[in-house]
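Please check both lines for our workbook:

___
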Amino acid sequence: MNTSPSSSSSAIPLSALPRIAVLATGGTIAGSAQDATSTAGYQAGVVGVGQLLAAVPALSTLAHIQAEQIASIDSKDMSFALWAKLALRVNALLATGDIEGVVITHGTDTLEETAYLLHLTVKSTKPVVLTAAMRPSSALSADGPLNLLNAVSVAANRAAHGQGVLVAFNNRIHSARDVVKTSTFAVDAFQSPEVGALGWVQDGRVEFQRGVVRPHTVACEFAIDAASTGAWPAVEIVTSYAGATRVIVDALVQAGVRGIVVAGTGNGSIHAALQQGLADAVARGVAVVRASRVGSGHVMHNGAASDDALGFITANSLNPYKARVLLMLALAAGGTGPAALQQAFDLY
């Protein structure tokens, strides 16, 4: 773990530039609208990776770029198949000797989920950096070009090695585990509310203020191949709120889900009627994880007094969407029983 600040801003001779793969998946960063003043009425994913790169000529001073168009979607429509394709391609690229890092352009809607999935399944210490935009490429003051420039700067920097999957956004560097989208419109939409950003990047200078502590990438037991060769374990999310019932839980159990993440109130607390439905789901072999809808903070394990008695797992500081990612991977890896699954949540 690297805990000391590190930075780099010196120019690199062209002959010594690293080779960085840029994988495009669509999103707002590749969006376009007829009106340059529109930041909402646009079509996502219509601008190709070549055009994205051409808008940032300074990239040629940072790295030799190898570009690929993996998908052209609005990230709200992210699928298991695309997750598998992306993870397998990243692993294949980083296994080669000439690729020194990967940058992924992505939509903001599900970026935090994709980033965390890769954080757990990429098997390399080389940098993987996701970036995106809150404004389409056609907008006045589009934020995509600078975010892309900064993401390549981070991926090309030696200090990014061994930090797991990163997100470069609005001059900040975040860990994939910690980062969440916190605004529907602001250009600083991504934050790490519980622990803060890892560092920053500006004008070519990259600085890490701290290192990543929890296991990731090569230190993880998860492999995307296990989930991609067969059906992904069905895991759904339900929410607790005033007057919640067990209707959705019962329907999900009847449909054959293997896991349920509940976005509870406060410290993952659950309405009594919903809690009874979830306890009955555990009795039928469904894994249940308590997370929180609050947006930050830890969901603490209550031990024998509650969670152990009910067979519930707690999500630690993972939000419900990242908890779903981890639960799917843990189940796909053969995790069974609350104790083994809780160990995964405590570790990762």
Notes: The chain is about 30% helix and 20% strand. Residues 80-94 form the longest helix (15 residues). The first strand starts at residue 6 and ends at 8. The radius of gyration is 20 Å.
